[in-house]
Design a protein that fits this description.
The two termini are about 15 Å apart. The protein is an alpha+beta fold. About 30% of the residues lie in helices and about 30% in strands. The protein is globular, with a radius of gyration of 14 Å. The protein has one domain. The strands form two sheets. It has a three-stranded antiparallel sheet with strand order 2-3-4. Strands 1-5 form a two-stranded antiparallel ribbon.
């Protein structure tokens, strides 16, 4: 399911340089995920981990422009808020994102 990922100023301020679990993109993706799931962002790939089962549910490549923003942030340089679209399986998404679709079906 295509979801808009919005990186806010707070995500940037709370981001941890070089941390795949708390980078600016991971912070933003976390908001759209179901409880018990967490993103791991490594270079140009994001994986969604099911912490309860201890396994990855999903992985995909990030757009090139997102990779560049992460690299800029990891070099200690300023970045501005931005957004991008990510196709995440509904099973990983918080109910807030999936339930409206079920109501339409």
């Amino acid at each position: 399911m295509k979801v808009e990922i919005i990186i806010t100023q707070k995500d940037i301020e709370d981001g941890v340089i070089g941390c795949p679990h708390q980078c600016v993109v991971a912070n933003a993706i976390q908001r759209v995920l179901r409880r018990g799931y967490s993103p791991v962002v490594l270079a140009d790939v994001v994986s969604i981990e099911n912490r309860k089962e201890g396994r990855y549910e999903f992985s995909c490549r990030l757009p090139a422009e997102v990779k560049m923003k992460i690299q800029t942030f990891d070099m200690g340089k300023d970045i501005a808020p931005f957004s991008f679209t990510l196709d995440i399986p509904p099973s990983c998404l918080a109910p807030l994102f999936v339930e409206p679709l079920l109501a339409v079906s």
